[in-house]
Amino acid sequence: MRWAALCSAAGILWLAAACSTAPPPWEVENPIVPLPAGPLGTEIDLAALPDPPTPARVRLGRWLFYDTRLSGDDTVACATCHRPEHAFSEPTPVSTGIRGQQGARKAPTFINQAVTLYPHFFWDGRAGSLEDQALGPVANPIEMGSSHATMVETISGVSAYAPYFQEAFGSPDVTKERIAKAIADYERTRMSGNSSWDRWRYNREAGAVSETVKQGHELFNGKANCGQCHLGNNFTDSQFHNIGIGWDDAAKSFKDEGRWVATKELPADKRRETDRGAFKTPTLREITRHAPYMHDGSMKTLREVVEFYNRGGVKNPWLDPKIKPLELTDSEMDAIVAMLEALEGEGYQDTPPASFPR
Q1: Closest Cα partner for 148 from 160, 159, 135?
Q2: Are 35 and 47 within 8 A, CB to CB?
Q3: Would the pTM count as exceeding 0.90?
Q4: How many other CB atoms are there within 10 angstroms of residue 281's CB atom?
Q5: Cys-Cys with 247: which of 11, 119, 202, 316 at CB 3.0–4.6 Å?
Q6: Facing residues of 83 across strands?
């Protein structure tokens, strides 16, 4: 009897010990996972990057990306505008930050940005890396409305974050650089590929797409010449082009001067007049997921976008010489839209964590 009692007591103690060391719910819901492989068509190998992401940094970055405590009033996270269900863009013309303040631009997607032709981020290219891009909105008064110092203080005050910074960086210290690195590494894992277009082009699956999509592909790279800017597997040259969006002919000015905002203060040899009204070429991957289109969300549908290019954009003194009337027929424009719709893929999808370190 006494031995049974001792065994029973020991069992209770073991159970209590096991319970006391059980991982917290936020860790169970956000486990460390291996780096994903680049889906068909992306040609992205995360492990081959000069400073490859690590699974520990990606897990930490996933929490931070969705954590509203990075903002000034605990209401806005990176994911507020970069919504996973919209391929990490948004379904609104422009972004909305703290206290309902609206900006002048739509949040662009960052899928497939682990590898770029040029290190240009944001619509105007003012950031030179995903890390720089991650930090920018935090200190913007109409976006996340905080400061980098306040963000670091807030996250440092969340004791449960410390072991994950230790795991990801070798010490529990919280810095803005570490926060940015973790978020950027999470963003690098958001890749889109294996679309029906990819299966047709790379796996030679003739029936993966319709004949209309195939026609659209030929037009995209031929008569319409979309591929001169939307080039490569990610359908972007990572450069800046003036297509006339926002030009006010009466005032002879742009509502938003785009790239010029980022370069006008640079030395003369590093800025160009043609930066006026120029914006970065967006990727066309998952383009169906985040209407409306253009940097200001001024076009509601892909058909409207193709019609705009078919007209030759909007004439202005700095219109990119590549933008000319295309003389496409209605059926040809429909075919290009069908080709764009065939770029819906997989690999980027995610849902927000259910809970966060406390």
Answers
A1: 135
A2: yes
A3: yes
A4: 21
A5: 316
A6: 89
